[in-house]
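Risk mitigation, structural track. In case the binding assays with adenosine-5'-triphosphate fail to produce interpretable data, a predicted complex structure has been prepared as a fallback.
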Amino acid sequence: MVNKLKNINSYFKPILKSLSAQALKMNVRIYLVGGVVRDLMLGEKIFDLDIVVEASAIDFAHKFADTHKKEFKKHHTFGTATVFFDNHHIDFVTARSETYPSFGVLPKVKPATLKEDLLRRDFTLNAMAISLNKSDYGKLIDYYNGESDLKNGFIRILHDKSFLDDPTRILRAIRFEQRFSFKLEKHTLVLAKEAIAKNALGLVNPHRLREELILLLKEKTPGKYVKRLNELKMLQLMGINVKFAKNDFRIFVEIERAIEFYKNNFKSHRLLEEWLVYLMAILYRIKRSDTAKFLDVFGFRKGEKIRVLSLYDNMDKLKELNNRVLPHVIYKTLNPLSFESIIFFYAYYRQKNIRKNIEKFLDKLINIRLRLKGEDLRKLGFKPPTLYGKIFEKLLYAKIDKGFKTLEQETSEACIIFENYQSKH
Ligand code: ATP
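Fallback model:
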């Protein structure tokens, strides 16, 4: 028997041994399952573990967490539990079978054997297990020929109704197909297309589709994933009536570069929600009202919606940055925008001047602050205080353009601005 755990990294080795020892003690059978088995066989890095327990997963996980003095979280509704190890987590699930009362809805579950548990999974390559039990520790359990599909590079569903039961699997299929440069197996592709034609996606809770879409956009090089979604008309079925010509996918590569540039050069700015920039590259191509509707129906957060919609209001303003403009104009244009929108525009507009101006903003202008405070204006006798907002705005723009260094420079500029107001009103 080949021990598939022989080469697992030294961090996980003792953890798996300890799981195995506890299973022996409790007289239950446990298995490593799902994506982690797939990744082990592909020689990919492992981050988290998924364990199937042929008994109560919550009891098993609880005891394991106690032994290792680790944080433990249970989810009663699903009969699952998680134990947190440093930066990794171990998910425990009771072996279960699932039946779908109707297409697209969440399944009814009941305890079952490992074999049945594996049958409820999405694809053969995700339906393998490795035993953690003493009698056959490290043995691959492969009821559905996952290993051979993995070798041949096929994404294959486990039964013909799979995509109808859970149409989010179509998005998952594309995700794994593109991630590993595999192919949807012929019959699986036919069934995916059939499910798409029957508008199976329309039966799923849009929030679940949103989560899968986000996962897909979080992959490396999302452009090729979007291209595939487009080929299969999936975006259109989610209400994004977009038309891509061949060259239109270039924006995704530009975004990858822009994100790298941002990460390497502006380390003090907050991290980007990179997936959102890629989503922008899909959505800006359709009407504002359709984008707003899509974001609502799929339950994107308010902040995400604001950032995406800001593209429509700023597309033209950004073009002005291709001219020679004063620094405060750059500031005024870009400061209200999120970093995601700015990086989108950086990728979208390839004109040198626009890019230079964006860089200038991110590098210098964004950090400029006034020294003068409201209290200082009050001491200078400026009235009424409702004017202060306007004065500060003008003062900041003046500081940005003229490069004031001292409080005195700011104070004398504030006086000029205030006098101007007085003489006008
Ligand atoms: P990733 O590498 O992206 O994390 P993963 O395969 O580990 O991929 P998860 O979403 O963490 O994906 O799911 C863990 C396992 O649960 C999968 O490998 C698969 O066996 C099963 N699974 C997840 N989602 C579904 C689904 N929609 N239908 C059936 N099985 C699923």
